[in-house]
Amino acid sequence: MTRARLVLLVLLAGLLAGCVGMPEAGPVRTEPADDLLDAEPPVDFTPGGPTAGADPLEIARGFLVAMQASPLSTTVARQYLTAESSSSWVPEQGTLIYTDELRTEVGATDVRLDLSDTTALDRRGSWLGEQGDLRLRLRLVRDAGEWRISNPPDRLIIPLTHFQSRYFQYHLYFFDKAAEVLVPEPVHVPGGAQAPTALVSGLLQGPARQLLGVERTFLPARAVLDDISVPVSVDGTAEVPLSDEVLDLGEQALERAFAQLAWTLGQVPGIERFRVTVDGSPLELPGMVTDMPVTGWSELGPEVVGATQSLFGVREGRVTAVVGGEERPVTGVFGEIDLGVEKIGVSLTGDRIAATTGTGTVLVGMRAREPAGEPRAEDARPVLTGATAPLAPVWDLHGNVWILDRTSAGATLTVVRNARATSVEVEGITGEDVRSFALSRDGTRLAAEIAGEERDRLVLARVQRDDAGRVRGVLPAESLGVGDLGVEKIRDIGFRTPVSVAVLTAPVAGSSRVLLVDVDGSAARTGVPSEAGAFQGSATRLVTSPSPGAGLFVQTRDQRMFVLAASGRWAGVDIEPGLASATFVG
Questions:
Q1: Which of 195, 192, 165 is nearest to 38 (CA)?
Q2: Which residue segments constitute the domains of the chain, with CATH numbers given?
Q3: What's the angle, vertex CA 461, arms to CA 190 and CA 212, rounded to 5?
Q4: pLDDT one-digit tens code per residue, 197-249
Q5: Does residue 429 sit in helix, strand or coil?
Q6: Which pTM was predicted?
Q7: Mode of pairing for the β-strands spanning 167-176 and 146-149
Q8: Which burial class, exposed, middle or buried, applies to 39 when counting CB atoms under 10 A from its CB (0-12, 13-18, 19+)?
Q9: Residue 66 belongs to what H/E stretch?
């Protein structure tokens, strides 16, 4: 299995550029999208060009079919355009995906396209979300005696069936602002030999403008592919021909740039190594070979290498750890003194604990005895007091503690760094009825479950930091659309991978479900299935981690725990019932 789950491609800018008024009259046709192309097209598909004497409707339909060429090519699609519009058409600006039925209405010199339930991708394949029903009008004129389109929209227009069969999800890898960990950004691009070129091209564009406070790139801003493609040899070596701006990078920046390329290209099946060239000459890091393995730089992965995989919890007021199937109290104040702890969060390295108490205080202390020897209650230092109903604290890789308090006025969010607490406002989360929240291991994504009267919501916001990892702000939260997956009530959430959130849903017909939802919100349209079979009963908590190999647990109201077995069934565990606030690190 590759480092990231496969994903899909392309763009949207000036959404209705080139669209004009409606035709006044003409026949209306409703056609299933599948009818424009066989439901199971061949691996490669080369559409035919326009036939002599074709009428406007045939030209319009032929243009739509031609945009489904595989491998992706616009050569035939341009034959349906006037000479002038063919030279000015820029389909690379985006992709528009429509579903269900395509309705066409023909006027004297126009063909109206009613596209239902559309979704858009940007120029490199990032998911832009639903656009609703759209109406496009193609204007046709005589060109050398034949009907041709004079105002093609600057984007590809494809049916959902083509998108689902031809496009795959990959990720572009950038760095967090502190340059400590790689951050994956989902994109959707056509699979096959074109994928490496699409991915490197997208990577060279750098982070999206709105994410410049969230992540960074070490590839030069003006660097481009110095050729039309990223070829892959039969032995699995991808050659990345870059312009000479990359020569200006220092050794450390160049190594970070190579790490981005390694992780991005390493997702493509068949690629084992990569080579960067400038003017045909290989570029290498000091002390390294020219052809570098795509499995390199594993220490920079978004799962955060070194994070402990132990399971922690609270039993009878003390913090315990489950190691090798055996549960025992942790060393230090939280494991040896009953402080009335209710909920906990453990730092990624497992050496620090943040805990809530029934008095509304959040304590932080080391998971070890102080040098003096016997632990004292004072070793657990209060970092927040007067909280109403705080959720379990969350740690990020920079040592910050995130505390979400459920007050009568809605959620408040506090970030503690070096014992200093700072309130953080998050549009779409602050003031809402938040039931659970989670932070991605790379520290750039904040997910929250928000209760609703009829339907709960899952939202995600991006975290802005400075170069030292300090939180500078959080962008407005956006919905991930779990309602489209048939979810009405959510019990708990947690990051299952760096780019997916596991969602525990409330029981339906006596059983609970765990669903995986992509962080870009594409889950409903791409049909993400449940990772696990139904849990027969009422599960109230989800315990999971993005670390490879970490277990996926659910917990019932009486605090019994069940784990997802390799068979896909839920199995009981040896942990005695009653372990409260069970959690992995983070």
A1: 165
A2: 28-165 (3.10.450), 304-387 (no CATH)
A3: 70
A4: 999 999 999 999 999 999 999 999 999 998 779 999 999 999 999 999 999 99
A5: coil
A6: 0.90
A7: unpaired
A8: exposed
A9: helix 56-66
